[in-house]
Design brief:
Blueprint (H helix, E strand, L loop, with lengths): L1 H13 L1 H41 L2 E5 L17 H13 L3 E15 L4 E9 L1 H7 L7 E3 L11 E5 H7 L6 E7 L5 E12 L10 E4 H8 L8 E6 L5 H13 L7 E5 H4 L3 H33 L2 E4 L2 E5 L6 H26 L4 H5 L3
Parallel strand pairs: 3-8, 5-7
Antiparallel strand pairs: 1-9, 1-10, 2-3, 2-6, 2-9, 4-7, 5-8, 6-7, 11-12
Helix pairs in contact: 2-10, 9-10
């Protein structure tokens, strides 16, 4: 084996043109594979940050059964004051948690007094929400990017609704909603901000102050729909989730709570997988066309080199159809492998979670 390696090394050094040409092709191929894998990871991280820092949070806590019925935003499945107090005690004791925000969520009618449409509203404390969701205010395409823009009596409206109803910053609108007892109530608001859409569930929701929501829904103090949590480090997601599960839903717990990580609340398995597949297929098609063109050019240029005792050997590259298929399949396979990690994360959510906000 040692003699074979010596002979191989000697041949590589002797036929330098062939060696550098082949080594260059392999190196370029490896470089582009690494670039593709790293770029895919970067896009994934950017998408995750857009979801978690804009509206979802890293972890959410609900009453049992709320997420399964979230399409209806059921007020009868809200967290009660006793449950909220228990959650806050545990959250405040958990060192890895940075901030949290209490929310009320409901659906209602949104009107400019001439036209009416449906709206989903997140009702929050502006200071707590903007700390938990640092990309919320940067999503404003109109209005001051401060928590004061969501003071009592003001509303953040999704950009799509403002275009459809022709409303703008400073306009007065009305929100009408039905509370848990079936009573219909209305309240006027001044548009304090217009929100750009964000990728994924909840990216088209509006926002009002949590005290305005209590007034509109005639809801007792302390009752909320969910608590959204932001971690100091997203890499500790599973660790914190396990701790919260143990303390809030573990054996002997009577809290009747559910813990959901962002992965279970956002439907992205197919998105990541299909992105990898499309990139692989398109890359294979383009690579095949460019590769065949380069082969044709090399054949027309007629590059010469020395091989053994032969001088002036003409480089005549050829490739079989079966080799093209194998190489294309490998490229598609690498593309899919690059998306397996984010797709595997997304695969752990339940179907009802994936469909809840679409």
């Amino acid at each position: 084996m040692r003699n074979s390696l010596k002979i191989a090394l000697r041949n590589l050094l002797r036929y330098r043109r062939r060696t550098f040409f082949t080594l260059g092709l392999i190196t370029v191929g490896m470089v582009f594979v690494f670039i593709f894998v790293s770029a895919t990871g970067s896009f994934k991280d950017m998408m995750v940050r857009n979801i978690t820092d804009s509206y979802l949070g890293h972890i959410q806590i609900h009453a049992k059964g709320y997420v399964e019925s979230i399409e209806n935003l059921p007020l009868q499945l809200n967290l009660q004051p006793r449950q909220v107090a228990t959650i806050e005690e545990v959250v405040n004791e958990t060192q890895l948690i940075d901030f949290y925000s209490k929310r009320i969520k409901f659906g209602g009618a949104f009107s400019n007094f001439e036209q009416t449409t449906n709206i989903r509203l997140n009702d929050v404390d502006p200071e707590a929400e903007t700390r938990t969701e640092p990309l919320l205010l940067p999503r404003l395409v109109a209005g001051e990017r401060t928590a004061a823009s969501l003071a009592r009596g003001k509303i953040f409206v999704p950009e799509l609704l403002t275009k459809g109803l022709g409303v703008k910053i400073g306009d007065t609108v009305v929100v009408v909603a039905t509370n848990r007892d079936g009573s219909v109530n209305g309240k006027t608001f001044v548009i304090g901000g217009i929100l750009a859409s964000a990728t994924g569930p909840g990216g088209r929701d509006g926002y009002i102050h949590i005290d305005d929501a209590r007034e509109l829904l005639r809801m007792p103090d302390g009752e909320i729909s969910e608590i959204a949590i932001r971690l100091k480090n997203l890499s500790e997601l599973q660790q914190v989730s396990t701790v919260l599960q143990s303390k809030l839903t573990g054996a002997g717990s009577q809290s009747n709570l559910e813990i959901h990580t962002w992965e279970k609340l956002s439907p992205f398995f197919n998105l990541f997988l299909y992105e990898g597949l499309l990139l692989g297929v398109l890359g294979s098609l383009l690579g095949t066309m460019v590769g065949l063109l380069v082969i044709a050019i090399l054949n027309s240029v007629k590059i010469t080199f020395s091989f053994g005792q032969q001088e002036g050997v003409v480089l005549a590259p050829t490739i079989a159809f079966s080799q093209v298929i194998i190489i294309s399949a490998l490229v598609v396979g690498v593309s899919l492998l690059a998306t397996l990690q984010p797709a595997w994360k997304a695969s752990r959510m339940e179907p009802i979670d994936a469909l809840q906000h679409i």
